[in-house]
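Lab notebook, design round three. We kept the backbone fixed and only want residue identities now. Task for the bench partner: fill in a sequence for the structure below.
Input structure tokens:
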């Protein structure tokens, strides 16, 4: 019973990872874009002062 639960959990974890792999890639790209955008805004506001 424990083995069956572990197998089910491993399969669910694998499917979850395979499903969200492109989502994580998109979030990583979006995160870098947001960091760059905030950096540009910060540098722009700093240069004004």
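Proposed sequence:
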């Amino acid at each position: 019973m424990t083995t069956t639960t572990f197998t089910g959990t491993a399969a669910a974890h694998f499917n979850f990872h395979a499903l969200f792999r492109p989502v994580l890639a998109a979030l990583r790209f979006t995160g870098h874009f947001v960091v760059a955008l905030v950096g540009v805004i910060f540098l722009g506001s700093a240069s004004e002062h």
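Keep this in mind before ordering anything: The mean pLDDT is 79.
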